[in-house]
Amino acid sequence: MEHWQSLLLGLIEGITEFLPISSTGHLIVAQRLMGIGTISPADKEAADAFAICIQGGAILAVLGLYWKHVKQMLLGLIGKDPGGLKLLFNLIAGFLPAAVVGLVLHHWIEDHLFGLWPVVTSWMVGGVAILAAVWWRKKNPDTSNKRELGHLTWQLALIIGLLQCVAMWPGTSRSLMTIAGGLLVGLTVRAAVEYSFLLGVLTLTAATAKTALDKAHASGPEFAHHFGTAKLMLHQFGAANLAIGGIAAMVSAFLAVKWLVGYLQRHGLAVFGIYRVAIGGIVAALILTHTFSA
């Protein structure tokens, strides 16, 4: 992997991770276009690990932006902020469904859904769903009072967590499902976005840690059977590329998150629905014209 490739992948990760357009789908397409992860099973294993580990940069960006909530939860743990403790329990409730489903179906998802056609399908279905929801809201405006983050209950958080499980299908978008879930249970736009970002920190941290600790199962070079996935990735791509990708993800995620909150409050999700349908159509056309294989 060249440095410019790790920089580009980091920018893609940071920009798309918290937008409702699927970072996983974009990274799969970008890696295919650059020929990364296509040489052997071990190369693909390392590429998948790289894509997950640079999420650490995006995690740091959200921790910095939402340090107030993080501090609140830390104070809650030592009994000094009941609201912070409640928020922490709500995040755990939202995280548990994905943790259980992820542990059970992780390998099946990697084996069957990490292809271009599954990504294209989820991009387009999700885009149409967003546009249909926007149309419905215009015809049936919701005038009821909305909940702020402090009024979220663990039962409602669990519903958001169940919807997050759908995003394990690459291309669906974890942010889309959790923001939509937050709006569904009655949160304000700002509260839904904030909960989505904070839940993302917990979910992505767990996914990154699991990848770093997992044993490689690729049927490639012999070292893949003796070292963890993280070491396999570093052997293939080097520490410098991981650092470049992580820093690029952190900076771009910081800017994307700051922009998204205000944008959604002013304009809603429609543009993301249009984008998802458009990029799904473009990638489908590239596959059908054999520009690259599915």
UniProtKB/TrEMBL annotation:
<feature type="transmembrane region" description="Helical">
    <location>
        <begin position="149"/>
        <end position="169"/>
    </location>
</feature>
<feature type="transmembrane region" description="Helical">
    <location>
        <begin position="267"/>
        <end position="288"/>
    </location>
</feature>
<dbReference type="InterPro" id="IPR003824">
    <property type="entry name" value="UppP"/>
</dbReference>
<comment type="similarity">
    <text>Belongs to the UppP family.</text>
</comment>
<feature type="transmembrane region" description="Helical">
    <location>
        <begin position="7"/>
        <end position="29"/>
    </location>
</feature>
<dbReference type="GO" id="GO:0005886">
    <property type="term" value="C:plasma membrane"/>
</dbReference>
<feature type="transmembrane region" description="Helical">
    <location>
        <begin position="239"/>
        <end position="261"/>
    </location>
</feature>
<dbReference type="GO" id="GO:0009252">
    <property type="term" value="P:peptidoglycan biosynthetic process"/>
</dbReference>
<dbReference type="Pfam" id="PF02673">
    <property type="entry name" value="BacA"/>
</dbReference>
<dbReference type="GO" id="GO:0050380">
    <property type="term" value="F:undecaprenyl-diphosphatase activity"/>
</dbReference>
<keyword id="KW-0133">Cell shape</keyword>
<feature type="transmembrane region" description="Helical">
    <location>
        <begin position="49"/>
        <end position="67"/>
    </location>
</feature>
<feature type="transmembrane region" description="Helical">
    <location>
        <begin position="87"/>
        <end position="109"/>
    </location>
</feature>
<dbReference type="GO" id="GO:0071555">
    <property type="term" value="P:cell wall organization"/>
</dbReference>
<dbReference type="GO" id="GO:0008360">
    <property type="term" value="P:regulation of cell shape"/>
</dbReference>
<feature type="transmembrane region" description="Helical">
    <location>
        <begin position="115"/>
        <end position="137"/>
    </location>
</feature>
<keyword id="KW-0472">Membrane</keyword>
<keyword id="KW-0573">Peptidoglycan synthesis</keyword>
<keyword id="KW-0046">Antibiotic resistance</keyword>
<protein>
    <recommendedName>
        <fullName>Undecaprenyl-diphosphatase</fullName>
        <ecNumber>3.6.1.27</ecNumber>
    </recommendedName>
</protein>
<keyword id="KW-0961">Cell wall biogenesis/degradation</keyword>
<comment type="function">
    <text>Catalyzes the dephosphorylation of undecaprenyl diphosphate (UPP). Confers resistance to bacitracin.</text>
</comment>
<keyword id="KW-1133">Transmembrane helix</keyword>
<keyword id="KW-0378">Hydrolase</keyword>
<dbReference type="GO" id="GO:0046677">
    <property type="term" value="P:response to antibiotic"/>
</dbReference>
<keyword id="KW-0812">Transmembrane</keyword>
<keyword id="KW-1003">Cell membrane</keyword>
